[in-house]
Amino acid sequence: MSAIVEAEGLTRQFTVRDGARRRRVLAVDDLTTRISAGEAVGYIGANGAGKSTTIKMLTGILVPTSGTVTTCGLRPVKDRRRLAREVGVVFGQRSQLWWDLPVRESFRILAAIHTLSAAAERARTEELVERLELAGFLAVPVRQLSLGQRMRAEVAAALLHSPRLVILDEPTIGLDVLSKQRLREFLVAERRAHGTTLLLTTHDMGDVERLCDRVLLIDHGRLVYDGDLAGLSRTAGAERVLTVDLTAPSADLTGIPAARHLSSEANGLRQRLAFDAESTTAARVFAAVAERAEVVDFTVEEPDIEDVVRRIYAARR
Amino acid sequence: MRTTVRVYWRLLRAGFQRQSAYRLAALGGLVANTTFGLLKVAVLFATVRAAGGSLAGYDVGRMGTYVWISQAMLGSVNLHGRTDIAERIKDGRVAVDFLRPLDVQAAEITTEVGRSLFALIPRGLPMIAIGAVVGMAAPESAAAYPLGVLSVLLGIVISSATAYLVGVAGFWLVETRGLQVCYMVVSGFLAGLFVPIQLFPRWLLLVAHASPFPSMMMYPIEILSGRVGLAGALALLGAQLAWLAGVGGLGQALTRAGRRHLEVQGG
């Protein structure tokens, strides 16, 4: 498959003023990766890990300190204007709509900027208006929109020119559950319909779980994991948790092979056991519990990705 | 080429429409412009009369033209140095500008000029109407009108392109307010907003002519008031084009160099 993004040794330094002194900070440090056409990649990491800086280098906004990057076969800084026709970017915290104009007018200006034909403009606008449910506020000035409405309009604005690569920088930040859900559904449908490549930075693990088939984890500018989500949990040695409700108060269920007693509630009526998915199975742990007490109900929690990320970070300190 | 024209036409209209959203501000500007126009009339007419009816080529009629055209252009010519791009560089929104398949400088100036052109309607035309009533001289040659209008447009574009330079200084400076205030103090004075620059002492007149500011406001007024003839008008238009090329070229160079300095951190 053809590469949409190819980065090699990509590095960016910033000068930070620290009182009177100046410090050099490596925002992105020697990043080498490749994203193929049609992939959906989640780019995760803590605040200040270097996610946004990477995106700005991929799109030609920032000039790398060293290393090379090719996006859609173009050199981002040199071919910035050509690349802008291939890429659509949504910055969750920055608007690309015209604040004091109606939403519809922003779309018209963007269509002109991207030199869409009148027919293409109409067809694409209609498609996006319908799928993102924008019809109710097309005539409203952007400054009067709710955050959820504005984000949908932002996504439509970024996708109006049908870019091959869509980059979303924290697109669901501040959205309520329903708005998040709608936006994710739209992105899944858009990928299916147009084969769009998706690169997503987020703190919302729900975004990654529902949208991405590959995860890049970055810590202090360095790439520390590249693979699927399940693999990320395995790398971190994250544990699954079995919660059991028992018929009668019982002593703590310690000593079960390959499992660790976490907590007991209500005199041991409810107990939680953690186990490593690599060394045992939920069934085996459950069977061992059932030998010692009568179980009414149980649940198995998968590892929380935020917890996984925390573990990976902690292991690197 | 045709598509390029279409894009920038859209941006021009967008600027125009944006400005039209602020009607109350336009009304406020109109009131201020009128008040200061009448004040200028009182002071400058008295000065001309005290000088014996003519001063540096201005009689009362031409001085009237000077006052009302300078007031009419005040809402459209950027003599305050504040720009949208300065804000966007400061808070990082400029990232979005670089995501568009456009020349950042040309797009910004086009949008600003669109806003300025709108301002001519609520703030410019009424001043001309008041001037027509209160009294202002017309140029002798009919050719002065189209040349004068062209010169007004060039003045607006030059002022946007020069204020843009203040804005992009933000690529290097954390805060451009100091520079903007300097621009505001110097530009209005040297552009001939308060008194025609011909009333300046000679050394100050030379300073003014060595700056782009007179080409923003004084030159169009000289053409429209008939203080200069046809040949003079063409010479002033030539000087305007030269200033536009100068500040425009400098803006291109600064934008290119500034990108390497751009540090959009966080968010």
UniProtKB/TrEMBL annotation, chain A:
It is a peripheral membrane protein. It comes from the Bacteria. The keyword Transport applies. PROSITE patterns: ABC_TRANSPORTER_1, ABC_TRANSPORTER_2. Transmembrane segments: none annotated. Keywords: Antibiotic resistance, ATP-binding, Nucleotide-binding, Transport. Pfam families: ABC_tran (PF00005). Gene3D superfamilies: P-loop containing nucleotide triphosphate hydrolases. InterPro entries: AAA+_ATPase, ABC_transporter-like_ATP-bd, ABC_transporter-like_CS, ABC_transporter_ATP-binding, P-loop_NTPase. GO terms for cellular component: plasma membrane. This is ATP-binding cassette domain-containing protein. Residues 5-245 form the ABC transporter domain. GO terms for biological process: response to antibiotic. GO terms for molecular function: ATP binding; ATP hydrolysis activity. It comes from Frankia nepalensis. It is found in: Cell membrane.
Automatic annotation (TrEMBL), chain B:
The keyword Transmembrane helix applies. It comes from the Bacteria. The chain crosses the membrane at residues 21-45, 65-81, 117-138, 144-174, 181-204, 224-250. InterPro entries: ABC-2_transporter-like. Keywords: Membrane, Transmembrane, Transmembrane helix. The keyword Transmembrane helix applies. This is ABC-2 family transporter protein. It comes from Frankia nepalensis.
